[in-house]
Amino acid sequence: MTTKRPSPEPGEPFSLLDPRVMDPEGEIVSHESLDEADLDQVVRVMEALRRWRATERRMSEASRRYMKLGETDMRALRYIIAAQRNAQLATPSDLARHLGVSTASVTKLLDRLAAQDHIRRLPHPADRRSTAIEVTEETHRTARESIGRSHAGRFHAAADLTAEEREVVIRFLDALSATEPPPQP
Fold it and tell me: How confident is the model at residue 1 (pLDDT cuts 50, 70, 90)?
């Protein structure tokens, strides 16, 4: 007799994240030490993560479309806004380090953002060879309205947890992060 497995969406017959479906012999995912209820719950956790990733992708894509920017452009703006909020100068070399790209790539990115009136380049107050970058008021307002409101919802979801629940979530997400394989040479 087979047990009905948790399904990710109403009407779907099985979850593609369930090792009983995808790896019934446990060759990759060892699951024989878990009973059916625990397995069901683990699959529900995995499905919840899948739903969150899908939601996050949709929200990120909607913000990028709204602001007519790519992912790296959005990351750059977030960094520049954070620097401004903390009374720090953002420079092209800081941005290159943050984004993990070359300074030549940052120059192209900044040219694009300046052409769309998202940023201004200013003389660096202490280094004549460098430039300071700031986000325009309009872009700052737009980012605050679109991305800021989404972030506020996520913040409140975390704040609604007890301190103990937050620690469990942190431990779980850190453990997930540690599953990343090392970079290949």
Answer: very low
